[in-house]
Backbone:
C-alpha cells in the first residue's frame, strides 16, 4: 500500500461517512478491508484501490466506506442505558399525554442488537398490557448490516454478549448453529438506510434516540452537525443516549444532561414567548 | 484463568458430590457448572444445592456444550441464573457475570 492509496481510503471514508481514519494505521485499514478485497475478487487491497481510481465505481466506493466503519455492537451494550430506559425513560414517556405512537430511533444500529434490545425491553415492561403504540426504527449507513439486522439471525457469541438468558429462551429459536429471533420481536423494528452526515429530516421526530458509539468516530465539525440534527429530530423533552465517554455537553444544540449522566441528554423544551 | 484475572478466588471441584461438600463448608458467591459431570449431573447438583441451607445464595451459571433450548429451560427451572454455551470467550464470561450482578 502506498501512502497515496491509504490517503485515498481515508478521504473516501471521511467524505462518505464523516468518519476519521488514521492514515498511519495501515495494518488496521488492511485488516478491515481484507474481507471486501476477497469478496470482490481482487488480489490485493492495492488492486481494489487502483480499480476505484480508474473507474470511480460508486458501489465499490460505498462498499469501501462501509467496510471501514466499526461494527462493534452487542445486545444491551453497557447495560445501564437500557435499565435507565426501562426504569426512567419509558415511565416518563408513558405518562405523557398524547395518542401518537412513541417513536424510538436506534441511529447507527449496525446489525440490530441495540434496536432489538429496546424492543425486548418494551415487550417485557408491557407484559402484554396495552399501551401507547411504539415505533422503533433502526438505521445504519451499511446495507449489509441492515440486511443482517432485518433477518434477526445471530451466532452463539452474539447472543451471549449482553443478552440475558431469559430473553434467549423466550424469543429465540436455535436452528443449526444460529439463533433466530422471533417474528413478533422482529416486526417491532423498521429498518432504514440513513447516512447521519446527510439530511435526516425525512426520518421525522422522535421521543428517544439511541446514537451510541457513532459520534466519537466523527471529525469535530461533523460531530457537531450530526448532534445538531439529532437534537432537531427530538420532540421536546425527548431523550438522546450516546455512548460511554461520548459526552456531548453542548448547550448550543439545546440538550441537557439528565440525572448527572454523561451519556443521557434531554432536549430542552423550546422557549415559547406568549404575547 | 479468566475468572482469576477478574479478581475471583476460584476453587475447582472434580465432581458434584465434592462440590456439595465444598458448598456446605463455605458457600461461594458463584458456581460455574457443567451439565456432564461424574457421579452427579450438573442439573442434579443444582437441585441439591438449592435445598441446602444458604443454597439459594450462589449465582449459578451453567457452562456447557448442551446448547439446546430444552436443556437451558430445564436449568432455569431448576434455579440457574445464567447459561453459558461452549465455546465462549472472555467477553462472554464478563457479560454473564455482569448479568448476574457480580461485575
Residues:
Amino acid at each position: 500500500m502506498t501512502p497515496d492509496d491509504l490517503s485515498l481510503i481515508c478521504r473516501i471514508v471521511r467524505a462518505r461517512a464523516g468518519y476519521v481514519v488514521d492514515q498511519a494505521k495501515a495494518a488496521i485499514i488492511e485488516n478491515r478491508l481484507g474481507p471486501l478485497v476477497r469478496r470482490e475478487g481482487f488480489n490485493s487491497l492495492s488492486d481494489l484501490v487502483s480499480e476505484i481510481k480508474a473507474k470511480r465505481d460508486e458501489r465499490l466506493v460505498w462498499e469501501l466506506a462501509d467496510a471501514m466503519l466499526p461494527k462493534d455492537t452487542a445486545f444491551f451494550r453497557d447495560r445501564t442505558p437500557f435499565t435507565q430506559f426501562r426504569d426512567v425513560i419509558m415511565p416518563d414517556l408513558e405518562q405523557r399525554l398524547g395518542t401518537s405512537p412513541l417513536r424510538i430511533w436506534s441511529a447507527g444500529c449496525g446489525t440490530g442488537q441495540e434496536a432489538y434490545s429496546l424492543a425486548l425491553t418494551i415487550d417485557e415492561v408491557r407484559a402484554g398490557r396495552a399501551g401507547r403504540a411504539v415505533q422503533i426504527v433502526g438505521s445504519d449507513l451499511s446495507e449489509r448490516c441492515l440486511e443482517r439486522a432485518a433477518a434477526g439471525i445471530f451466532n452463539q457469541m452474539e447472543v451471549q454478549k449482553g443478552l440475558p438468558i431469559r430473553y434467549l429462551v423466550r424469543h429465540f429459536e436455535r436452528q443449526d448453529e444460529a439463533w433466530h429471533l422471533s417474528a413478533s420481536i422482529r416486526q417491532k423494528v423498521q429498518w432504514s438506510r440513513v447516512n447521519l452526515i446527510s439530511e435526516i429530516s425525512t426520518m421525522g421526530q422522535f421521543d428517544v434516540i439511541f446514537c451510541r458509539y457513532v459520534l466519537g468516530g466523527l471529525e469535530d465539525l461533523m460531530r457537531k452537525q450530526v448532534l445538531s440534527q439529532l437534537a432537531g429530530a427530538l420532540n421536546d423533552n425527548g431523550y438522546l443516549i450516546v455512548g460511554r465517554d461520548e459526552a456531548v455537553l453542548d448547550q448550543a444544540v439545546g440538550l441537557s444532561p439528565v440525572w448527572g449522566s454523561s451519556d443521557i441528554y434531554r432536549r430542552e423544551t423550546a422557549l415559547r414567548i406568549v404575547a | 484463568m479468566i475468572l482469576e484475572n477478574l479478581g475471583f478466588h476460584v476453587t475447582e471441584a472434580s465432581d458434584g458430590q465434592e462440590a456439595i461438600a465444598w458448598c456446605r463448608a463455605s458457600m461461594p458467591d458463584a458456581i460455574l457448572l457443567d451439565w456432564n459431570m461424574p457421579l452427579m449431573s450438573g442439573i442434579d447438583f443444582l437441585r441439591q444445592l438449592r435445598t441446602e441451607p444458604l443454597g439459594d445464595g450462589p449465582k449459578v451459571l451453567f457452562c456447557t456444550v448442551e446448547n439446546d433450548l430444552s436443556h437451558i429451560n430445564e436449568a432455569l427451572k431448576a434455579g440457574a441464573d445464567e447459561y453459558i454455551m461452549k465455546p465462549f470467550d472472555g467477553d462472554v464470561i464478563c457479560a454473564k457475570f455482569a448479568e448476574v450482578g457480580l461485575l
Observations:
- The first helix of chain A runs from residue 3 to 17.
- Chain A has a mean pLDDT of 91.
- The interface with chain B takes residues 74, 79, 156-157, 160-162, 164-166, 168-169, 173-174 of chain A (CB under 8 Å).
- The first strand of chain A starts at residue 102 and ends at 107.
